[in-house]
Known about the structure:
One of its GO terms (molecular function) is protein methyltransferase activity. By secondary structure, the chain is of the alpha/beta class. It is 30% helix and 32% strand.
Amino acid sequence: MKYLKAEFRIAHKGGNDIEDMALLQIAKDILCEYAGDAGFESFEEDGNFLIGYVQEGLFNKSILDENISNLPISGISISYTINQIDDVNWNKTWEEEGFEPIVIKDKCIIHDTLHNKEHVGNNYIDITIDVKQAFGTGTHETTAMIISELLDMNLNNKSVLDCGCGTGILSIVASKSGANTIVGYDIDEWSVKNTIHNCMLNNANNVKAILGDVNALNSIDTKFDIVVANINRNILLADMPMYVNKMNQGAILLLSGFYVQDADKLITKAESLGLKLVGKSELSTWCMLKFTN
Ligand SMILES: C[S@@+](CC[C@H](N)C(=O)[O-])C[C@H]1O[C@@H](n2cnc3c(N)ncnc32)[C@H](O)[C@@H]1O
C-alpha cells in the first residue's frame, strides 16, 4: 500500500531548536492531533522531529497547512517535507529481534516464534504471532486494551468481526476464547497473508480473512455479536456506519487506535448512529471505547 511519510520539524520561530522538553512535547501532541485531522495515522518521535505516516489517498494537504499555520502556541513554527514510500513496516525491529512474551490479565500469553515461550499456567490462552510486516503483537497499547476487554467477555459461540486485522491477533484471541464465526479484513495484502498464516499457527481455523476496505463487508450477509476495530481516528469515523450496520441487536463495538483527546469525536459520531457508550479505557496516550446498540 502506498504511504506518504512526512518529516515535521518543530522549532522556535526563527529556526532554533526547542530545548524546553515540556514545550516540545506540547507542540508534538498538538501536531499529532492536527496532522490526524489531515489523515495521518501513525507517528514516531525523533528529537525536534516528528515522523508521520498517512495513506496516500487520505492525505489532505490544505487541512494540514491551515492547521499548522494556526498553532495555538505562540513562538513555535512547524515545517515539513513529504515523500512517498511503498509501505510501512510496522514491525521492522520485531521482525528482526522478536518480542518478549506478553501476558495480559493473567489469562493470555502472546509470544513470537523466536523466543522460547514462558509457561505461565496451563489454563492460559497461548498465542503465537509470527511477526511479519503486519501490525499487532499485543505490545501496543491499543491492541492490549482490546485483548483485555475481549478476555473479560463471554465469547462462547459468538460471531466476531475484526476490522483492520493486521497480524490477526484479535481474531485469534476471539477464536481461542470460544467465538465460532470470525471474519477479519484488512486493506493491506501483507496483513491478510499474515493473518491467514498466524491463524494456521494457532489452529484458529474458524477465522476468515478478507482483503479490502470496509466495502468488502457489502458481500457478507452475516451480522456480528462483537465488532472490533483498531485502526485510526479518521477511518473509524468514516467506517462506523458500516460497523453499526453489521452489529446484531445487543452487540458490542470496541474501537481503538486513537488518542485520548480524540475520544469525544468518536463518541459523538457513535451516539449519532444510535450507539450507547458502555466503557472506556486509557493506556498512556491511547484510548479504547466500548459501545452497544
Ligand atoms: C493498528 S493496526 C491493528 C492491527 C490489529 N487488529 C491489532 O489490534 O493489533 C491497523 C490495521 O488496519 C489496517 N487498515 C488501515 N486502514 C484500513 C482500512 N481503511 N480498512 C481496513 N483496514 C485498514 C492496517 O493495514 C493495519 O493492519
